[in-house]
Design goal:
With 335 residues, the protein is an alpha+beta fold. The protein contains eight helices and 15 strands. Helix 1 (8-17) packs antiparallel against helix 2 and helix 2 packs antiparallel against helix 3 (68-82). The protein is globular, with a radius of gyration of 19 Å. The structure holds 2,5-anhydro-1,6-di-O-phosphono-D-glucitol and manganese (II) ion (2 copies). The site of one manganese (II) ion has 4 residues, from strand 5.
Length: 335
């Protein structure tokens, strides 16, 4: 029996009780990540009022101008999660290399992969942004962290989720037993269960893509967009276009309303022929979530969860959302 309004902590403990061998380490890990998200959320909420807006002047490993809030979110998560004793390593979108837990701290058996702030280009416009996370278990023996511990396919994830800093702050996560959403109740500082057992509609009426790149797509991708934009004489335009430009917000709407989000490969940047989104800290966690909700995520050929990462910042094309819409796109892409 579960009632709405239970705290995420109670929900985590229930999940833990379902796994008799669970040591509670995982619950401790997620609980601390929630504290970090609350700190980030507070900063996001007042970022319009402090000098934290704007750029640090740094350029990150992705070659993108780092906004102060990106750096702040990255630092909060690294700082809070380092001395927890549950992690052996972290991978952050904002850090070129694997972040090993300092030997002075007790190490644990989990790896945290995260995008500390997703949707950075929207920070100054007060548009929804978020934090995306993925949790893996260390696979190599002993204390030493090796690349195999972080370069794991998405089906190895033990948990995934995101925090969405929007009109309200939400947390959506899964540990493999269903997908649930929690909304932060500021008056008591707790995330309360608000979206129980989320399932994505089999088919939607919204497609989400940056149509500004139409000249950079190949003919198969163009055929996909024709499918969504060609009016059907009987039924009129079948789909609406919605694009926020924050992956976490576009995904959240797709999850709740149905439809499909796409970031196809494009010829815009020769360094990024496979598109812009990162496999380990963006696409794989969202692919786990959408699968739990009954949807699909593919790079156009392969289920995102089956892709073996070759390097921690690898980019992949992504088509993610309602099962029928993603299957239709895969059929068109096959030509
Ligand atoms: P991040 O801010 O973590 O770098 O992510 C930005 C990503 C993602 O949030 C969004 O879907 C995409 O950038 C938008 O890219 P375009 O501006 O090329 O459409
Ligand atoms: Mn991102
Ligand atoms: Mn980011």
């Amino acid at each position: 029996m579960s009632r709405s309004g239970i705290t995420v902590t109670e929900h985590l403990l229930r999940q833990q009780r379902l796994h008799p061998l669970a040591s509670g380490a995982f619950t401790v890990l997620l609980s601390e990540l929630i504290v970090a998200a609350k700190i980030i959320s507070k900063e996001v909420r007042k970022s319009g009022l402090t000098d934290i807006l704007g750029l640090t002047g740094d350029i990150n490993v992705q070659g993108e101008a780092v906004k102060k809030l990106d750096q702040f979110a990255h630092a909060v998560i690294v700082e809070r999660m380092s001395h927890l004793g549950q992690l052996c390593a972290m991978v952050s979108e904002e850090s070129a290399d694997i972040i090993e837990i300092p030997v002075k701290y007790k190490r644990g058996g989990y790896v945290l992969v995260f995008d500390p702030l997703d949707g950075s280009s929207n920070i100054d416009a007060n548009v929804n942004i978020g934090t995306i996370f993925s949790i893996l278990k260390k696979v190599s023996p002993g204390e030493q962290v090796v690349s195999a511990d972080v370069l794991q396919p998405g089906y190895n994830q033990v948990a995934a989720g995101y925090f969405l800093y929007g009109t309200s702050t939400m947390m959506v996560y899964t540990t493999g037993g269903g997908l649930n959403g929690f909304t932060l109740y500021p008056a008591i500082g707790e995330f309360l269960l608000s979206h129980e057992n989320i399932t994505i509609p089999e088919k939607g009426k919204i497609f989400s893509v940056n149509m500004g790149y139409a000249n950079y797509w190949d003919e198969n991708v163009t055929a996909v967009m024709d499918h969504f934009t060609q009016a059907d004489p009987e039924k009129g335009l079948p789909y609406s276009l919605r694009y926020i430009g924050s992956l976490v917000a576009d995904f959240h709407r797709t999850l709740l309303y149905g439809g499909i989000f796409m970031y196809p490969p494009d010829k815009k940047d020769p360094k990024k022929p496979r598109g812009k989104l990162r496999l380990t800290c963006e696409c794989a966690p969202l692919a786990m979530l959408v699968k739990e909700a009954g949807g699909l995520a593919t790079d156009g050929e392969t289920d995102i969860l089956n892709i073996e990462p070759e390097e921690i910042h690898q980019r992949v094309p992504i088509y993610i959302g309602s099962r029928e819409d993603v299957e239709t796109v895969m059929g068109i892409l096959k030509g």
